[in-house]
Amino acid sequence: MDLDEVAIAGVEGGPTIRISRTIVILQTLIIVALLGVISILIVKPETKSPSNNHAYIINYDQADLARLTELVDRFNKGLGDNLMIIEPGMDSGPVIHDIISNGKEMNWTVDHSRDAGYPNNTVKTKFVCRSIRLHERDRDYIDVQLSRCDGFNANEQLPVLAFPKDKL
């Protein structure tokens, strides 16, 4: 008997079947690979809505509003947080809001560099503030407002983002 083959004895008096070890190994690998692909497809997480990711906001839906509320609540409790908000641009590219908070001070950067419709699209506006709130401006928008910001009147409410209610 060759080392690359395995003899399998049949039923009494039946034929002996010879199977190549290489074929058995290849068949086993194919079966394992197919089982792996099937298990990935079965337990694959829902990827249609990026709102499931707590690191960024892009849809402006109910889940994104909840995440924004969480940012405000965490800051007001003295807890840090990080968040990126990708806002559709005026004419072309998005406006990116990068928020970093240590619970006492919030660094909010608005990056217009990808928006060709913005008058000076190389500008990044940076706010360092010690207060944030969500304010219902009217029946159509919820504003994110910063206050107690460096370089501004302490009581001045700076609207940095408008959240459209029609997407909720």
UniProtKB/TrEMBL annotation:
Transmembrane segments: 23-43
Keywords: Membrane, Transmembrane, Transmembrane helix
Protein name as annotated: DUF4362 domain-containing protein
Organism: Paenibacillus albus
